[in-house]
Structure formats: structure tokens, C-alpha cells
Amino acid sequence: MDQLTTDREKGRRSPTDHQPVVADAVPVAARKFTAKGLATRARIIDAAAELVFAHGVARTAIEDVQRQAGVSASQMYHYFADKSDLIRAVIGHQTEGILDAQRPVLDELDSFAALERWRDLLIDLQEQRHCVGGCPIGSIAAEIADQDPHSRADLAAGFERWEAPIRAGLARMRARGDLRPDTDTDTLALALLVALQGGLLLTQTRRNTLALRAGLDTVLAQIRTQATDFAGTSPTLDQ
Prior knowledge:
The structure is a single chain. Helices cover 64% and strands 0% of the residues. It is mainly α and 239 residues long. The longest helix has 28 residues. One of its GO terms (molecular function) is DNA binding. Keywords: DNA-binding, Transcription, Transcription regulation. This is DNA-binding transcriptional regulator, AcrR family.
């Protein structure tokens, strides 16, 4: 049981809140927030996301989030029912961050050149982070996917949102005639995401991007085997 839930059930006061914690009658999911309230909620999520990315879910305490966000325990209860509710918000936040960091390239993966640009972008992002942290939602999945079915569903939805533009781009290449009509673009898109996730894990562990390069390059090479005579010229991969 997380600390936020424990404090609520036992009626404890948080070290950062001198007022008794009282559960609101209206469920959190049904509440409507003002612009100021939405800004406060976003600040809490930002703080939690930063801490979870740095320390993991288990080592991120509610009190740490309160301090980083500059909010009281009563505010935490107002915006989030418990720690699981907060982590689900973090998953959504991190998913948006991942997609935004790859746009507009991610939404235009309908040529070999675009796939190369995306591959280069992914490697550059890891090098900018000095290969630290891995995948923001992949790391959460490894930690809690078997413990919380609601979070697992959110994580699966996040990965689907990531895979969808890859799948759509390859499908456009097939429809345009760049790939053979029998090309299984769904499987190739999934393979790219799998190579990316495995590459990010080994990049984080080994502190270099060699595995990420190898995984992505291997799948991109397989995609090229499906090219037709009408496909545009593809740049050569760095070896």
C-alpha cells in the first residue's frame, strides 16, 4: 500500500500539511478543475515524472513529490486518489513527451529517407542524455506492469500510440508502391518498436548507443528487402 493511501486511511497528517486529511465526497475523476487547479495538477505530474524517471516508481515517495512540486498533502488528495492514480498520470505525461520529442519526424515515416531521419533522431536523443534513463515508459512497465492492471493498460496504450505512426508510415509506403504489395507492414512496425525498446535498455545498461544502432539498422535493412523497383533511393546506413 502506498504512503498516500496509508496516510488517508489512518487519518495521519503529512509533515508538509498541518491540517487533517479529509477525503472529498466527489471522486477525483469526476472533479472539474479551474485553470489554476489544472496548472497545479500539471506541476505535480511534472515533479512526479522527473522523480520517477530518475529513481523509479518504488523509490519515489509521495512526500518527495509534494516537496518538489511545492504542494501540501491535502492538495495531493484533491488531484489524485492515491499513488497509483498519480503514476497513471505520469504514464500519460511521459507518453506525450516521447511522442512530442520525435515529432514531426514520427508522423512522416513514409519514405526510406524519413525512416533514416527518425533512426538518427532516436540515437541523437540518447546521446544528448548520455545514454541515461532508458525509455521513460519502458522503465515504468518493467517495474509495475505485473502489479497494476490499470497502469499496464495505460502503458500498452502508450506503446500503441508510439507504434501507430510507424505502422501508418509503412502502410503509406506500401500503398504508394515503394514496398511490395504483400509486405507485412504491421509486423515490420512492431519489429521496429521492439528493436527500439531493446536497444534503449542496452543503451542504458552499457552507456553507449551501439545496441540501439544495431537493432534499428537490422530492421530497416529488412524493410529495404521489401522495396520495389519504383522505390526511391535509400541512403546507406552507418555501420
